[in-house]
Amino acid sequence: MAETPQDKSQTTDAGFQPLRQTSKESTSKDKMIEGSAWMTAGSIFSRLLGAIYIIPWVIWFGTMSNQANALFAKGYNIYSFFLIAAIAGIPSAIAKQVAHYNTINEFAVGQRLYKRGLLLSGATGIVCALILYFGAPFLSNHDPNVIPILHSLAWAVLIIPTMSLTRGFFQGYQEMAPSAISQFVEQLARVAYMLITAFLIMHVHHGNWVSAVSQSTFAAFIGAIGGMLVLVWYYFRHRSRLRELAENSKQELAIPTKQLYKEIIAQATPFIIIGSAITIFQLIDQYTFFNIMQRAFDYSTTVVNTLYADFAFNSNKLIMIVVSLGSAMAITAVPMLSEAKTRGNKREINNQITDALLLFSFFMIPSALGMAAIAQPLNTLFYHYDVVGTLVLQASSYVSIILGLFTVISAIMQGISENVRAVGYFAIGVVVKFALQFPMVSYFGVMGPLLSTAIGFGVVSWLILRHLNQEYGISFHRISRPFAGILVFSVLTFIVAYATVHLSYLALNPNSKFMAVFVSVLAACLGGIVYLYATLKTRLADMMIGDRVERIRRILRIH
């Protein structure tokens, strides 16, 4: 049936956060900024909680902390892969498809899609949990301590797919608050359980460190329950509005249940691969690093475990706070790009790609360089004073820019239904990673995995950006000037923070955790002030975020 002009109007406007029942007009950039703000807040606070717990956790594990960190990383890398397989890319696929149906005023179809997805995610969660639990001996890579860790993590795989699916459903309505708040509650419950059990086992009862790590990983299941309860509350809160939207939608599409399942699976499969990209690279490191290091350097297992913990757990915990900035914007971009793709609006796609790249650069580059600048006090604060650990954290901070870029642009590819091509590009990156892994680790040691990862994801990102430019055009003339400003101000921020750290340590004790707090906060604040002042003074912040910053400028009296 041909659309009437009225239908077309509905189609165009349907995507504006329909759960809120508001008539406010909003541009795609406004929605991207608002959605990114929610997702960034949720992700950042969750990541901060996930990093801060390390301080007491390391103290309670004492001399076994590096071994515990290595064991935690080994278990979590395998768990992350199974979790992504269980989730099966369904949340992002659901978000994309729900946004698509909402755009054409077929809200009822999107809601049916979600309900069918619940059955699918429940089934995949059960299957993957069983495989992880009973397959633990085969996945342990001959480390018996990994087996109980995988057993404890299998429980979380049962719940998290359904929780993630529900987050994707709300994201399809461009409602990011439920995802952000549930993510924070999930992490809060997880960290609380981890700290309580670690304290009781290691500090009170002086128990076995492997049992303590096992309880810390079981905390993922406790956190999942907390996050799921938040989403259930949001769903019931909006249930009447969802019913109203379904009843008033066009209802011209009669899609059989079998076709809905096919649609979910077809959309979800590429999301599995792309969504697990960083985890796949980490698994390559986990299953190759130990053999290469022991052959090339003849190190003991304890030493290699410590080095592995440096890059796979210690630095990774901290840089993922920064990478979460990219993830937040990536999640926001998918449903909006899907809407633009549905309408066939190439200009809007071009604008959204350009806005996403600029927003990513504006937040990600100064954050990554700032973390590199304060790597020494950060590493001392969260772990202990360690020259190697500091250097690894600095290198990881630079690599995080490439990881964040990949996260954003791979999501853009998914949003415009270029999933298969994105998977093909990623396959090339995996080949590059494999080809470079042995020479890089053999020559650069603990830095080798970071370098091969950076080059692998760098190749993938270049291929994706080249394709996006060929198909939709990237407004490089609009990007070049603000990007140059971002780069200059970010380097200036790095210099100020780096100088603050090294000047402070001329007089302060570098081994002290208390001094590490002082130096980290001082350097971060001074660097942040420089970046804030420079971007406000030059109006770069206005270009990135819009008129919202004018109030900040007035408060700070920057003209």
TrEMBL record:
Q: Which UniProt keywords apply?
A: Cell membrane, Membrane, Transmembrane, Transmembrane helix
InterPro entries for the chain? PG_synth_SpoVB, Poly_Biosynth_Transport, Polysacc_synth
Name of this chain's protein = Oligosaccharide flippase family protein
Stretches of the chain forming a coiled coil according to its record = none
UniProt region (Disordered), positions on chain: 1-28
Q: Where is the chain membrane-spanning?
A: 37-58, 78-96, 117-136, 148-170, 191-212, 218-236, 264-284, 318-337, 357-375, 395-416, 423-440, 446-465, 486-508, 514-534
Q: Where is the composition biased (Polar residues)?
A: 7-21
**Record's superkingdom?**
Bacteria
Give the signal sequence positions: none
**Classification of source organism:** Bacteria, Bacillati, Bacillota, Bacilli, Lactobacillales
Compartments it resides in: Cell membrane
Tell me the organism. Answer: Pediococcus parvulus
Q: A single GO CC term, please?
A: plasma membrane
Membrane topology per the entry is: Multi-pass membrane protein
